[in-house]
Amino acid sequence: MQEITRTRKIMTKNKLFIPAFSIILTFLLFIFQFYSLQSPEVIPASAPDDEFSGARAYQILENLLSENKPHPVGSKLNKEVKKRITSELNKLGVSFEEQRTWACGSRFNNCAPVENIIATIPGSDKDSVIALMAHYDSVEMAPGAGDDGAAVAAILETTRALLLDAPFKNSIMLIFTDGEEAGLLGAEAFFKQHPLAKTIDLLLNFEGSGTKGGSMILRTTEANELLINAYSESSGSPYGFSFVKEIFKRMPNDTDFSVVMRAGVDGMDFAFAGERNHYHSPNDNLENIDLGTIQHHGENMLPLTRTLADMDIDELGNNVVYGGTIYGIWSHWASSNSYFLILLSLFLIGLGSFKLKPSIKGISLGFLFSPAILLSTILFGFLGFKFVELITGTVISWPGIDLPYRLLLISSTSLGALIAINLINRFVNQTDQVTGVWIFWWVLSFLCVLFLPDAANLLIIPTLMAGVFLSVAGFIKPDLKAFALLGTLVFAVPSTLGLIYSLEQSQGYRLILVVLPLIGLYAIALSPLLHGINLKKGMVVSLVGIIVSLSIVAYKPLYTEWRPQHVNINYIENLDSGTATYNLQSQNPISENLKSSLDFQQSRKALLPYTNRTSSNWAETLPTNWQKPDFKILNESIKNNQREIEIEIRSLRAADKLLLAVPANSQLRKFKLNEIEYEAVLSRYFSDDFFAIRLVGVYEKPIVLTLTFDSSALITGAYLADISTELPANAEKILKNRTKLSVPSGHGGDTATLFRSISF
Length: 760
Prior knowledge:
Layout: H1 2-13, H2 17-36, H3 54-64, H4 76-92, E1 96-104, E2 110-121, E3 125-135, H5 145-162, E4 170-177, H6 185-193, E5 202-208, E6 216-220, H7 225-234, H8 242-249, H9 256-262, E7 266-272, H10 291-309, E8 320-326, E9 329-334, H11 337-356, H12 360-392, H13 403-424, H14 430-451, H15 457-475, H16 481-485, H17 487-495, H18 497-507, H19 512-526, H20 536-555, E10 565-566, E11 568-574, E12 579-585, H21 592-595, E13 618-621, E14 630-639, E15 642-650, E16 657-663, E17 668-673, E18 676-679, E19 690-696, E20 703-709, E21 718-724, H22 732-737, E22 742-743, E23 751-758
Parallel strand pairs: 2-19, 3-4, 3-5, 5-7, 10-22, 11-23
Antiparallel strand pairs: 1-2, 2-4, 6-7, 8-9, 11-12, 12-13, 14-15, 15-20, 16-19, 16-21, 17-18, 17-20, 21-23
Helix pairs in contact: 2-17, 3-5, 3-10, 4-5, 5-10, 6-9, 7-10, 11-14, 11-15, 12-13, 12-14, 12-19, 12-20, 13-19, 13-20, 14-15, 15-17, 17-19, 18-19
């Protein structure tokens, strides 16, 4: 025993041991957390019938998307996908109905003819209904294997397994929505027009935003205690962070679940977001979808549905925060308990401080220097990626994960952190610093509890456990104190570094200013354990890492076939002037090979009259001989000083979209489509100077609209456009020069727009 004690003393006296062990421990903990968040192994098609098999679900997906091509709302292929879904339901013996109607979005005036599928597995209590929902349409440029074919296939495979145990106490409804990509229109149609929408008690929505990654809880409604408890008990691989819910509230992103919440229905929204560069692009296909992701969707879906289907779901309880998985262990608690936990952590930190006896001056310096570490880490990380912009001409969000960018992230943030830590170590001893650091964490935790309650657990768990380790350190021998402090890293890693890979997967470095603070917070927690040594060698290593990574970035091709550049080709023809323009649209600089297709100009120019946006990379071209969109006034009347005009518009070239842009000064108040009235809203897509009504998935359909104005004055300066994904024949050279290193993407992708002025 004496020999062990003597060895510990020797190790403690060695200044390099604790810092070196801290770095090694950080690496090991990160690897442990990383693997704990991976998707489960794929269960083969030969698995027992009562299990969810990702392989069987993939077979369904292959059948649904056998052409492996885009199938946007209203297209012939989308109708074929719908038929295949109903065929699968027929095989299972599940009764269903189709809802065919027009729908317009609540946030934008996007409208489309949608065809929803609603199926039901009756339960013994017909008044209680749980719904599973996913959309089956895709964007114009993507086959939609991840978004959202994987979820559709998972629901069908889950349904097969559920039927083995049916009937359950609660009925189970299956909703396959159409037109999600056009503005959540299928969900809007169902929840506003279908009587079955009012019977739903709980709904689970499943989405995809890439081609791989874990199926995680994206968000829940506020009353989620019953849901989270059921999920925790049933899922073998729970995954999700309630802080994402706080992020989602502040982002423009939407899923069908947004409509669910606006309808006042409780539930959960699941999604995966790995390889997001494939999102809304041709790479979202059958070849690239990860079967492990489909498996994870099913392992969330099937056991949770089984559990909820036999539960009393009348009372959902309070709001619960959930902390993802910490080395495979799921944590959650009632949001109101965060106040107790924050007080407990303060007590433990105070107890540890009482025993460790730090100085007030030292604690104050440790506290005040903590934000300096945070800011230095963020600054150097940000500057590192700014250098990437200078070298490559690309924006900071592109790309993610590849080795040189990962090395740059580690090296640049490490340099910033080490500079600050080395400076601070000169003024504060280890005991004072560790106390000041965790008081700083506590203050951040307290602010989160007050203002970002769903994100509070992200900081509370490390702070609480730091309080435990500080208390322990206060009661053990001085030689062992540093070893006790190592325990603070164990819980700091999952809440900081453990989240970085997930953010990289989902956003590249688009959310770099979210990633960098996480690294900075960990640097603060690590700083006391690097005390007492000269960190200049570490700074040199970090600087070398920055130079190496930037050198690789300078010579390494920025784009690959796996992660190509997103470039849309837009053809715009002014039917009034008889002029036409091509525009290459990308977030990043266009390749010289692609720009050589035509004499593309870099000066900025407004290409559409109904928007104030300007574009570079434009080139004049010859107009087509396509027919212009047709416009007819069918009827007109004036009542109570309101002018009502009935019009018919149509694309004579069978374009998939029609756009009606009406000047804001026209006093347009509402429009009627398919006997349903909608409020006119100013366009988010184009300009505040115009009301815009976008009709999606129309093709050859003539569309009748009734417009209501608060004025009887003649309306001039309005425009009618039809928009197709089919480009003119003279785009051949541009398409040829757009290699596999660049692909169309987004909700529009490649477009050909023909517009004309009209008057009312």
